[in-house]
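User: My advisor asked me to double-check a structure prediction for 30S ribosomal protein S6--L-glutamate ligase before group meeting. I don't want to rely on an old file, so could you generate it fresh from this sequence?
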Amino acid sequence: MSTADPAPQLKLGWEEWVSLPDLGLPALRVKVDTGARTSSLHATGIETFGPASAPKVRFMVHPIPGQYDLEIPCSALIKDRREVTSSNGESEMRFVIETPIAIAGQSWPVELTLTDRRGMAKHMLLGRQALTENVTVVPGERMCQPALDYSVYASANIRKSAPKRALRIAVLSREDNYSTRRLVEEGENRGHTVEVINTTRCYMALNALAPEVHYDGTRLPRYDAVIPRIGASVTQYGTALLRQFETLGTFCVNGSEGITASRDKLHAHQILARHKIGMPATAFAASPKDTGSLIQIVGGAPLIVKLLESTQGKGVVLAETKKAAESVITAFRGLKANFLVQQFVKEAAGEDIRCLVVGSKVVASMKRSGADGDFRSNLHLGGSAEAVRITKEERATAVRAARAFGLNVAGVDLLRSETGPKVLEVNSSPGLEGIEKTSAKNIAALIYSEIENRVRPAPVRRLKPAAT
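Assistant: Sure, here is a fresh prediction for 30S ribosomal protein S6--L-glutamate ligase from the sequence you gave:
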């Protein structure tokens, strides 16, 4: 029966370099103090989150003493909460976490209490409880082990090596539908805390120094990311709320400007045109005298008349003759509705391609076909969908369209025309049910991968106040 070789003896002085890899802290200068029972780590912005059965704590660390414009966001499971008496006799209730410490190639778990050590020469204290049997401390010596370097915090590689920190994420949604449930389920499966926030129950404190978002009478906590699932009926209020989160510095999967632009079909087509992205010929006018010109611009009947704020195929009419087109346009104007007129792409034959863009690539695509006798292919109106392989040109067009709106997650609807792909619409809150079931891909997981890549621990530089 063989036993593992014992760890080599480790000699430490009163000051050493260590790393806390699971917290994303590759270099810390610590004071080794056998007179102190517990170990402590400098932390600010300490905040609990997560379920009561497995509570977590999130906090910010300034790894370089005196350099408080550099912050590293960290999180860990709470192991305990206990009263600690400092060397000056003051007692404080502190959260206790457990995390591996690495010194000179050796690693072992240590308990750390979280406290604000600003003003102290070392931002971490290593007490005697953290010292294993193979560690010898020589109080009269320092830096007995290899030195590390604070320059690692300036490296672009620190994000790549960052640990998988648990995140606190808000889903802005008023509906308990498939997409919302999948986002909650997948986030929790990955160890994050995901909270569904009803958009219209939020209210905002507009304050230049301390802007806040409140919900049901209490201030909302700081979130690592917000996933907006804002319904069309509350676009204006929902995007205003999103701007508040943006002001707070929260990463929003889709920004307020992109959502606002995508919901206004006239504005959306102007953005597509500005970026030279293919789309059906489109015309808009305010005067009834221009009806004939509108019809002519889009190549005559048959044509599509579309309300500017239509969703899920509602408010979209196919006019098969010039007379029918004139009647529909007159009726819409009589209702004082804003609409545009668009070329009908016959060769698409009632089919379109939904490309789901996450980050900078198309992660799934499906071909949607309308129900019998319906030119609209929306699944909400009884259409059907099947997986489809898209061309390189279609893929590039979908990515360019999402990028034009600044969207990290977008459903880009394309028509296959004789002159190449034409963008019908860019959806800033695409449903997940149809695309996940059709493509057999875990789209929610891909969305979380994008979020994690964007907000996992990395140096955060805070702007210094201007000199007066």
